[in-house]
Amino acid sequence: xxxxxxxxxxxxxxxxxxxxxxxxxxxxxxxxxxxxxxxxxxxxxxxxxxxxxxxxxxxxxxxxxxxxxxxxxxxxxxxxxxxxxxxxxxxxxxxxxxxxxxxxxxxxxxxxxxxxxxxxxxxxxxxxxxxxxxxxxxxxxxxxxxxxxxxxxxxxxxxxxxxxxxxxxxxxxxxxxxxxxxxxxxxxxxxxxxxxxxxxxxxxxxxxxxxxxxxxxxxxxxxxxxxxxxxxxxxxxxxxxxxxxxxxxxxxxxxxxxxxxxxxxxxxxxxxxxxxxxxxxxxxxxxxxxxxxxxxxxxxxxxxxxxxxxxxxxxxxxxxxxxxxxxxxxx
Length: 331
Hints:
It is a single chain. The protein has 7 helices and 15 strands. The protein has helices at residues 15-22, 28-36, 115-126, 159-170, 250-257, 271-277, 316-323, and strands at residues 2-5, 40-42, 45-46, 58-61, 86-89, 93-98, 140-141, 150-156, 174-183, 190-200, 205-209, 217-229, 236-243, 284-291, 307-309. Strands 5, 6, 7, 8, 9, 10, 11, 12, 13, 14 and 15 form an 11-stranded mixed sheet that branches. The radius of gyration is 24 Å and the shape is elongated. The model has no long low-confidence stretch (mean pLDDT 92). Belongs to the pseudouridine synthase RluA family.
């Protein structure tokens, strides 16, 4: 028999979800059978699959050792740097300024460096993340942005923060504003664009249309022109964008669909147009985050009404040079 005491970061999970994460060698069919046969008990009594765990609960597992094997204690996150640009940090949450070029989560080309690996390394080094003492939780990102987009990403230090913030993101109780540079001069100083987005997984890109299709999703993108310039006859506009819906590549594809692709965007723009600016990435930055809670936020209530802003936005310096008649190319 093995006993497991439920820690603060395990609380709130269903019994089956907790055991699946904690013991990946335990088949789900056997898990359900063991719960029915009382080979898995909660506080010495029969439990249900959907029972929610509370801190201090004790699970008793009458199972063979082979099903209770856990992954070896090898921490790949220690192979990543612990360098982070931190805008804000407290005991519950981190607000980070991710630089373009860094992936947020591992992918098929992962080489041990990602934003989440850096967060875990950083917290491990501080002594705030002790994986050997956790059953099922690890610090996690609350939102994500594309590899070549820079800007604000939030990370949760505990499970309660992650649950609350996932709810706030889903209910759109956060306001995220972006800065971007697009090709051309916008027809209106501000506007709300509407359309339909369809994702092509194999191409890792999306397509925008004015009419819905079976697989499309409605999108709404609000922009405001902050400035414009025309270095050497190439016109650019600096925009602030408010995503009213949050879809994959929405800003990049939506603005490109009306004839104003982002400067430096090789996927939705053209190499010929981008050659002039010489940008290594699309000129897009998630630069401002506002907490606008309209429902209770539990232990995070103190964040309501606060605003955080990234200051070092790589393409603004080039735009200022263009405005002042300086060199129009970074290459």
